[in-house]
Every structure is written in C-alpha cells, then in structure tokens.
Amino acid sequence: MYLAWKEIKYAKLRYALIVGVMVLVAYVVFMLTGLADGLADGNKQAILDWKSSAIVLSDDSNKISSASVLKRSDLDRVSVGEGEKTGVGAYATAVRHEGKSEKQNVSIFGAHQKSFVVPDVVKGRLYRNSHEIIVSQNLIDLGYHLNQKVKLGSQTKAYKIVGITRATKFSEVPVIYLNLNAFTQLKYGAQRFTKAADKPISMVVVKNRAADKVTVKNNGDGTKLDKMSVNTFIQNIPGYSAQNITLDTMIGFLFVVVTAIVGIFLYVMTLQKTVLFGVLKAQGVRTRYLALSIIGQSLIVGVIGVGLAFILGYLTSLVLPAAMPYAIKPVKWLLDGVVLVAVSIIGGLFSIRTVTKVDPVKAIGGE
Amino acid sequence: MATLDMKHINKKFGSGHTEVDALTDINFSVNEGEFVSVIGPSGSGKSTFLTIAGGLQSPTTGEIQIDGNNLNQLSAGQLTQLRFEMVGFILQTSNLIPFLKVKEQFTLVEKLSHQSLQERSTELLKSLDIWELRDKFPKELSGGERQRVSIARALTHDPSLILADEPTASLDSSHAFEVVQILAHEAHEAKKAIVMVTHDERMTQWSDAIYVIEDGKLRKK
Predict the structure, then answer these.
(1) Domain named ABC transporter: which ranges (chain B) (predicted)?
(2) pLDDT of B186-199, one tens digit each?
(3) Which residues in chain B have Cβ-Cβ distances shorter than 8 Å to A367?
(4) Residue B165 CA, distance from chain mean position
(5) DSSP assigned state of A196
C-alpha cells in the first residue's frame, strides 16, 4: 500500500484523471439509481402506503387495476375477515380549478372513509359525502388549496378539497381519495345501479394475509377473481417493470465500463513500469507485494471516485426541480458504491498477470 | 567460507542447432571484505554471469552458494527472500523508484523487511554525503548522486553480497571513480563481498582481484 499511495501522490495528474473519470461514471450510476428509485416510488407509493398484503382484481383485467371491474358484493367472495379487506375503486383522470381549463393528471381512489387504505389526513378532515375529496400534499404544491372547489374529469359538479394527506403518487401523479359513491359517479356517470351491492369497485385490497393464504370463490356466474401479492400487483403496473429493467441495465452496463476503464488505465501504467518491477523483483521484492500494490491503487481510485460522486449526487438532489422524480435511498447508494469499488478492483486484477510475468533477469544488463 | 562461491557453472541458451554457450565452466569465489572486478566487452556473458551470481536465473549445470546457501536447493520464494536479505544490486541506470523521495526508498526497504532501519539509513546517507538529498526525487539528482543513493539503498538491509552491474556506465569519469572508490571502501570497511561488472578497465584500479570474461569463459587477470 505504501508504494501504491506514493505513486499516486507522485503522478497526481494521471491519477486525478482516472479518479475524474471514475467520479463521472459513479455519478451517472448514482443519478440513474436516484431516478430509477424516484420513478419507481412515483409509480407505486400510494400502494405501499396501504400497507396491504394482497390484492384481488377481476381476472380479465390482466392484473391492471384500471381495467378491473368488480362489484361491491364480490368482497364477500374473498375469504378474510371484515376488517382485513376493503373495496377500492381506481380511476385515472384530471383535476382542474373551477373556471379554468388547465388540467393536472391525478390518480383517484374511491374507498369507504373508514377503510384502511384511506391515508391519515394531516390537515383538514376526511370526506363525509360524495362531494368532498382529500388530496395528497403534492397536488397542493401545484397550486390547489384546502376548501377549494375543483372539477374532476368530465363531471360538471364541483368537489371540495376538505383534507390533505402526505405527499404520495400513483402512476407518477398525485393522488385523490373520495368515497365509493363518488367514484361510481365519476367513472360511470349517469349509469344507474339498482342495488348498492351491484355498484362497481376496481379491486379488493387485503391486509395481514399473504396472497397464498387468501382464497377467492370462483364458482357461479360472477366475474372471475384473480388474487395476487402486492409485489406482483406493483410489477404489473403498466411501464413499471420495463422502466426498472431499462435503468438497471444501464447501471449494470456502467459497472462493466468502470471495470474496463480502471483495467485499461492500470494496465497501461503497469506496462510503463515493467522495468521498475524487474528491478524490484531482482532486489527481492515479492510479486505478491507488487500485485497488492496495483490492487491497492484500484481500491484507492475506486473509493475516492465513489466518495466524490456520492457527494456530487447528493448535492445534485438539492438543486433538482421538484417535478423530477429522484429519490436517494442510502442502502441502494451504498450497494452501488460497494459494487463500483469491487468492479474497479476487478479492473486492477487484469494487470496481475503482467506483473507476474516480469522477468527480473531483464533488470540486469540494461536490456 | 566464501560469501559467493560458484563451481563449474555452465549456462546454455536455446537448444539443438540454436544452442549457445553463454558461460562455460565458471569457477569463481569472493570472500567478505573483498572487492572484485569482472571486465569484459559487451556480449561476453558478463550480464548472464551476474544474474546467475545473484540467483536471478539458474545455471544449466554447476553449483552456487551464497553465504553457505546452495541456491539449487531453494524454492523460487526462498530465492526471492535470500535475494532480499543477502544480496544488494546496484544497476547500470539506477535501482531507485522514480516516485519515492530518497529517504522513502529506505522506508520501503524498512516496510518490506519489517525492521527499523532508520539509524542505519541515516548513517549511510551521511557517510555517502547524500544526507542533504533525502527529500529529493531521483529525477532531481545528478547521475553520480543517483548512484550514491543506489549504493546506499543496496547497503541498507546489510547484505553480505553486493552485485554491481556497470555502476559507472552513465557517469563521467570523475564521478565514476568516486563511485568505484565508495564501493571499494564499503567492501573493506563494512566487510562486504562486492562484485563489479564493467567494460571500463580504468575502473578496476581499486579492486582486490580482477577477472576477465570473454566468450563465456572467466579467467583471473
């Protein structure tokens, strides 16, 4: 390590350049991780907020909530206790200020106000009738406020914002909760349902009971039900898996790039030092010491590069616009950092063979 | 017992019709306190001679002992260790590490040998008159200064045998003489066995014995 560090200090410019490249690549890795996590969170946050364990959709929906249509009476076909299941309506629409045409996309969830999926209100109160809604803080940040009357979708009637919940997203847009009747009205307009039991919901959300412990009754002529874990549900949110795979592939490829960059750099440095290594070997310095020295350098380059990129990535998060989905998850970043250092060490390993092959005989005679 | 003892050394390179006899029946020994010169033109086999004497390559036939250790019986690892402990090399250009300051060259030896050599290196630097240069990098030194540091470096861990490969090749004559005198002095005062290979006959005047190597054969002058 002594030799490794002294050489870096001596050849500052060279090593500054390789550390610079390392910083840039590591920075891109952190940025992509931040974006991947931000996007992933934006897609699924509201679902995670429910702290549920399983979700039941209609089988023909292909595991997509907005395409699923169930009846309120289907709740009885799910084999868990009353307090552990709840009917939820899901609908994607737009919200706008009364008298303005500018719209904001939102995800709407309809649920009974006492349902466990309805988040705590941090300001104001829960809805009490089909004209009242509660909205997530991130919609408020976009210029809406408590006690404001807003229009939803194509409905002519106005809804009043009576409560605000913590910021959350589903399908990358802010979330609005309202009651089941309001949901029915919003999604099905003037369509009449003779019995309350026939009124539509989108899904049944189950808590405290894993999907494989939940049974659904699929006899009779009712809609076929499909139960799944929350994770399966999230993986099937349109675009969710595709986007994660894309970003993860990019990050994975950057790991390969780091291996190549550090590998090539240290290999060239090693080639330049073959005479020196020959002299050192002649003097009785063990190959292992020289090899460890190179590994040490790749470790130093990796750690400094990742450290600087970490700081840079964090500072970037402070100046990014709020609209940009970006989430710093320390555990993920730490994992990224460990992998980056590991792959730069792997890069260093490429030079070991060259060091092993240096023949100390060459040191004598000036050949 | 001689510090370096070579008996019936033969070294062949290649095989079949490309076979070349680099060294033929070399018998050579140096005792402690002795400064021996080996002179020969380029291509005479003197580099091969030195690499075999230092255990960097093994002879085709013959036996070498350094301080009573038969090199033929040592593993590669043991040989490296023996070189580190008992042999000091002084090379034509320099055996210094370009990115270490003069004093750090000694720190490296210290770290590798896991023993404190602070006092010894200070003493060496002072006696070779290079103490003032301790904070300089090799490239900041003149050729003569570099060779003096090389000598100090080769002496740091107190080896019994010093092998010098054309130590004066890159120096002007006054610096060259000075370096050879230092070697002779170290051999006599510090009781080292020193072998210097050179092509320059003027450098042999302080030697205790002079050998000539020609076409792979060694004879005493």
Answers:
(1) 4-221
(2) 999 989 999 999 98
(3) 47
(4) 6
(5) G
Shortest Cα–Cα distance, A9 to chain B (Å): 8
* Mean pLDDT for the stretch of residues A335-362: 93
A360: closest chain B residue by CA: B56
**Amino acid A178: pLDDT:** 96
d(CA A294, CA A296): 5
Q: What is the DSSP letter of A166?
A: -
B20-23 long-range Cβ contacts below 8 angstroms, 24+ apart? B21/B216, B22/B48, B22/B216, B23/B48, B23/B49, B23/B52, B23/B59, B23/B216, B23/B218
Per-residue pLDDT tens over the stretch B144-175:
899 889 989 998 888 999 999 988 888 888 88
Q: A279 contacts in B (CB within 8 Å)?
A: 89, 91, 95
Q: What is the radius of gyration, based on Cα positions, of chain B?
A: 17
A contacts of B199 (beta carbons < 8 Å): none
Q: Output the pLDDT for position A148.
A: 95
Residue-averaged pLDDT of chain A? 92
Residue of A nearest to B55 (CA): A282
Contact present, A142 and A321 (Cβ < 8 Å) = no
Task: Identify the contact set of chain A against chain B, taking CB-CB distances under 8 A.
Answer: 2-3, 6-7, 9-11, 276, 279-286, 289, 360-361, 363-367
> In the A/B pair of chains, how many CB contacts fall below 8 A?
75
Proportion of chain A in helix, strand, coil states, percent, rounded to 5: 55, 20, 30
User: Domain B30-45+74-220, what architecture?
Assistant: 3-Layer(aba) Sandwich (3.40)
Do A30 and A79 belong to one domain? no
Query: Of A325, A318, A314, A334, whose CA–CA distance to A44 is shortest?
Result: A325
* List of chain B residues whose C-beta atoms are within 8 Å of the C-beta of residue A2: 107-108, 111
B168–chain A nearest CA distance, Å: 13
- DSSP structural state of residue A61: G
